[in-house]
Specification:
- The structure holds two protein chains of two kinds.
- Chain A is mainly beta.
- Chain A has helices at about 1-20, 55-65, and strands at about 45-50, 70, 75-80, 80-85, 90-95, 100, 105-115, 120, 125-135, 140, 145-150, 155-160, 160-165, 170-175, 180, 185-190, 195-200, 205-210, 220-225, 225-230.
- In chain B, the strands form seven sheets. A five-stranded mixed β-sheet of chain B has the order 15-23-22-17-20. A four-stranded mixed β-sheet of chain B has the order 6-3-8-10, with no helix packed on it.
- Chain B has two domains: about 10-45, no CATH class; about 60-349, Cupredoxins -  blue copper proteins (Immunoglobulin-like, Sandwich).
- In chain B, about 45% of the residues are buried.
- In chain B, a hairpin with a 5-residue loop joins strand 18 and strand 19.
- Chain B starts with 7 loop residues before the first helix and ends with a strand.
- By secondary structure, chain B is mainly beta.
- The chains are: A mainly beta, B mainly beta.
- At the A-B interface, strand 15, strand 18 and strand 20 of A face strand 10 of B.
Chain lengths: ~240, ~350
């Protein structure tokens, strides 16, 4: 009996982290992301930021416009970074060996790419985003979920490491209503040593393929989720 | 809006390899890669038609009693494509010089959930197989990240209701006729008794002509329930790659997206085998399909060895092999044949 109850208690805890602040059992579609019909054109503009730059990564992000690229030089950075709003559509944040001691939040935007960044002690939070890509992102030691996505569609997580986080390594929740299915892919990644590897809460159209999931108390937990495809997972 | 009159120069240009696209009601004459880029830009601005939003009132089809659901996961994506990967014309034993690769659009078979490729993205796309009574369940995903346009799959030969037509029809577009980048749609196509045969499928989105010419086509094979497949079966698409589409300096006449023997499919058979070559036209031209050293009966029962095949038409050369040797097969429009529309047919004793 205790063996049966333990995963349920864990599930409740994970889903509470995923779903807050919506009441338990309610589906809160929230803000439906704008349906972006095409990837915004790249502007060709590159904003560079180094560890000693005034205002850090956030200042470069604030100055970025649609289709810009923010390049983060090698080094250690502190503080949270927020990428928010329509002015950040098509933004690419590309790090070259940089570590952020903080959290990245991506909200109310579309077609954002985060690449090559290591996060220590803070995770990646994504809310109400239409198309997002995490490439070679490493998230370790977040107190809650490592990568925490809600009400967003069209994610592409590739060569991601999410390890040693307090709750789920990757938590996806609340697929917004859309005209057409837009699938989220988690591929060629490692999710290890978390309470739950991958938690799916009221999700649709997710494919998880070639993902290593060692050391998680529960490798994959799906609640009220359909059209989920799990392929070539390694526990 | 006044009707645009096509002048003599435009007409001659069209007849010399250019073509006219109608994209979201806008007519664009494509004579050059720059014109193709204008057509692509126009296609990217076509908005989703209102009727494409809700699901229609049509009941979802089911397999007939005893039939099966045959499920396919197919994505459309662009690839760099080389029509002459060996760099040689093996028939004439000469090199094919000059730039050869271009940005193509292809259908690609995937595993369930689009998790992994089942085969490389290629021209043509995967062959879909069904028997009478089956329901083809085709999960389609527009995975293209280059052209940024709505794409579709439109079938021939099978039965479907308007939701599964896979055609852009302006304001009358049904749900399957407008699948934007990143989106998915599941087509339901029934194999009925009058579906027996080999048929093409192709893009029928807002920019269907250009994107079909780029390589968005494939075949559906429907057999009678329990019918035996031929010992050797090959689908051959006859299709031209024009400079306006490819940006290359010359037109290549291709079979399955490849030009010149040694690059086009080499078909192999043995004496005594039941052989079926299904030949489909997939451009604006008419072709004549010829196999050296062989004859077969057409649908009327007459013996033929060089039947014509028009756009999106299928002819089948089916015979019991009795003539060993190395043979050529080719389009007998001479200018097509010498621009690459030829291949080897090798018969072992």
């Amino acid at each position: 009996m205790r063996r049966a109850l333990a995963p349920l208690a864990l599930a409740a805890a994970i889903l509470a982290l995923c779903a807050a602040p919506a009441a338990a059992g309610e589906y809160d579609p929230g803000t439906v992301p704008p349906e972006a019909t095409a990837t915004p054109e790249r502007s060709g503009r590159v904003l560079r930021v180094g560890p000693r730059a005034r205002g850090g990564i956030q200042r470069a992000v604030d100055r970025a416009r649609q289709g810009d690229t923010v390049r983060i030089a090698r080094g250690v950075y502190r503080g949270n970074v927020v990428i928010r709003g329509a002015s950040k559509r098509g933004l690419r944040v590309v790090a070259d060996g940089a570590t952020l001691r903080g959290r990245v939040e991506i909200r109310d935007t579309a077609h954002v790419t985060l690449q090559g960044l290591s996060l220590r002690g803070g995770g990646v939070v994504i809310r109400d985003v239409d198309r997002y890509a995490l490439r070679s992102v490493r998230v370790q030691g977040a107190p809650g979920n490592g990568i925490d996505v809600r009400r967003s569609v069209g994610g592409s997580l590739r060569r991601v490491l999410s390890a040693g986080n307090g709750a789920a390594g990757i938590a996806l929740g609340g697929t917004p209503q859309r005209i057409r299915a837009v699938r989220t892919f988690i591929r060629e990644s490692t999710v290890r040593d978390n309470a739950v590897g991958i938690a799916l809460d009221r999700m649709r159209f997710v494919t998880v393929s070639r993902v290593r999931l060692p050391g998680n108390r529960e490798p994959v937990l799906a609640v009220d989720s359909t059209d989920i495809v799990l392929d070539a997972l390694e526990a | 809006m006044p009707r645009r009159v096509i002048d003599r120069r435009a007409f001659l240009g069209t007849s010399a390899g250019a073509f006219i696209c109608t994209i979201g009601g806008r007519r664009i004459t494509v004579r050059s890669p720059e014109d193709a880029a204008r057509a692509d830009a126009a296609a990217r601005t076509v908005a989703r038609p209102a009727q494409a939003e809700p699901d229609g009132p049509f009941p979802a089809p089911e397999p007939a009693p005893g039939g099966q659901r045959r499920e396919y996961w197919i994505q459309a994506r662009s690839v760099r494509w080389d029509p002459v990967p060996t760099g040689r014309d093996d028939w004439h034993d000469v090199p094919v010089r000059g730039k050869r690769t271009f940005r193509a659009l292809t259908y690609q078979a995937m595993t369930r959930g689009f998790a992994r490729p089942l085969a490389p993205a290629s021209m043509p796309g995967p062959v879909l197989h069904a028997e009478v009574g089956d329901l083809l369940v085709v999960h389609f995903r527009n995975a293209d990240e280059h052209f940024g346009q709505a794409l579709t799959m439109h079938p021939h030969g099978v039965r479907y209701n308007p939701d599964y037509d896979g055609s852009y029809l302006g304001v009358r577009t049904r749900p399957g006729g407008f699948v934007e980048p990143g989106e998915e749609f599941t087509y339901l196509w029934e194999a009925t008794p009058d579906s027996v045969g080999v048929w093409p499928y192709h893009d029928h989105g807002p920019n269907h002509m250009l994107n079909t010419f780029r390589g968005l086509f494939g075949a559906i094979v429907v057999r009678e329930r329990g019918a035996k497949a031929p010992d050797v079966e090959q689908v051959l698409f006859l299709h031209s790659l024009m400079p306006s589409v490819t940006g290359l300096r010359r037109t290549l006449q291709t079979i399955n997206g490849r030009a010149y023997a040694g690059n086009t499919p080499t078909v192999r058979a043995r004496v005594g085998q039941d052989v079926a070559l299904h030949v489909i036209g997939m451009d604006d031209a008419f072709h004549d399909f010829h196999i050296h050293g062989h004859r077969w009966r057409d649908a009327s029962g007459a013996f033929v060895d060089t039947p014509s095949v028009g756009p999106n038409e299928t002819i089948t050369a089916r015979f019991v092999e009795d003539n060993p040797g190395r043979w050529l097969y080719h389009c007998h429009v001479f200018s097509h044949q010498d621009a690459g529309m030829a291949g080897w047919y090798v018969v072992d004793a």
